[in-house]
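User: I'm writing a short report section on ligand binding and want a predicted complex to refer to. Could you take this sequence and zinc ion and write out the structure as tokens? A short remark afterwards would be nice.
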Amino acid sequence: MCHWRRVRNNYKRCGHYVDLPDEMIQCDDRYCKFSTSHPRNCVPPRCTETCWQYRQFPEQYNPVIDSFCPVCVQAGRQL
Ligand SMILES: [Zn+2]
Ligand SMILES: [Zn+2]
Ligand SMILES: [Zn+2]
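Assistant: Sure. The structure tokens for the complex follow:
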């Protein structure tokens, strides 16, 4: 089912974290109200019984990036 992805970049060189805007991850699940595969004729009350009605809890994603964060780079802090 569809869910939000919350990305927080971890910049290894300076140890700073940078939060990115939340990203919407689409699924193609027929039983998900937000999916493009969801049939148009699937409507309440049936839909509420068979399909996901809510997006799922955000997935946390913390990639480690081997460089300085943009703030540090802008401040001229480089190798
Ligand atoms: Zn979905
Ligand atoms: Zn439905
Ligand atoms: Zn930094």
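A remark for your report: The pocket of zinc ion (ligand 1) is lined by residues 1-2, 27, 29, 32, 34-35 (CB under 6 Å). The two ends are 43 Å apart (CA to CA).
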